[in-house]
Amino acid sequence: MNLDMNSAFGEKEIMTDLLSSQKFITDGYNTFANECATPAVKTDFMNILTEEHRIQQEIFNEMQSRGWYPTEAADMNKINAAKQKYQGSAQ
Fold first, then answer.
1. What is the pLDDT of residue 61?
2. pLDDT, tens digit (0-9, with 9 covering 90-100), for 9-46
3. Residue 9: how many CB atoms within 10 A of its CB?
4. Between the CA of residue 76 and those of 31, 45, 89, what are the distances in Å?
5. Smallest Cα–Cα separation from 32: which of 21, 47, 20?
6. Signed CA dihedral, 7, 13, 15, 19: sign only
7. Distance between CA atoms of 86 and 67, rounded to whole angstroms?
8. CA 69, CA 48: separation in Å to the nearest integer?
9. Alpha carbons within 13 A on the beta-carbon side of 24
10. How far apart are CA 45 and CA 36, in angstroms?
11. pLDDT confidence of residue 89
12. How far apart are CA 70 and CA 56, in angstroms?
């Protein structure tokens, strides 16, 4: 099987892989930050986590601008129902 890497993956597939990787990376750093025993190390992991989320957001925004990650606007009735549900449980 002759697999030409340049033709096997287009920009959309590469961006999809990048986004998936960033989700995996942020999940890992979040777990590490939760497990830190010292404030200094936790702060370092939180800074790294913030940076990784920034990168993820850039990839997401780029994909969305190209129409590769479409999202639907949320139904306002469902938003209001969720607000009422959780406002009642927060008191």
1. 97
2. 899 999 999 999 999 999 999 999 999 999 999 999 99
3. 13
4. 33, 36, 20
5. 47
6. negative
7. 33
8. 25
9. 6
10. 8
11. 73
12. 16
